[in-house]
Design goal:
Shape: elongated
Number of domains: 1
Strand order of the largest sheet: 1-2-3-4
Helix content: 40-55%
């Protein structure tokens, strides 16, 4: 039998290091998922609003329909002071519902993660467009 020059397998130090990396990734995921879930709910409410209203409707009517959908979706994040909701007239897409907000997620004692969300939904269209920075 030939003697092995190097030991095969995973050392205890490697196992501990990979354990810390996996735990850190799970920790970040658990902290970020509620914020992403709220964004998806708000985006769904904007898409449902855009499919129900007409481009000729007033901004207050569109906002009321959007608020009704937000109530159904069950998120309170839009009542933050940094939530910006607008009905805009754009040349290529016509009238669009636009919203943007930021979410500060505390991670450790003095470390936070800032997520900035925005979405633009054309009124009268079922096509979804979104971006996340």
């Amino acid at each position: 039998m030939k003697a092995l020059k190097y030991q095969r397998g995973v050392s205890l130090a490697d196992l501990v290091a990979w354990g810390f990396v996996i735990i850190f990734c799970v920790f970040i995921t658990v902290k970020v998922l509620p914020s992403l879930s709220d964004f998806w709910k708000i985006r769904t409410a904007a898409a449902a609003t855009a499919s129900k209203v007409q481009p000729s409707d007033s901004a207050s009517t569109i906002r009321r329909v959007f608020d009704d959908h937000i109530t159904i979706e069950g998120t309170k994040r839009i009542y933050n002071s940094d939530f910006n909701f607008e009905v805009r007239k754009e040349g290529s897409t016509g009238t669009v519902i636009f919203f943007e907000y930021s979410d500060k997620i505390p991670l450790f004692t003095n470390v936070s993660l800032l997520m900035e969300y925005q979405n633009k939904q054309p009124i009268g269209s079922t096509r979804r467009t979104s971006s996340q920075e």
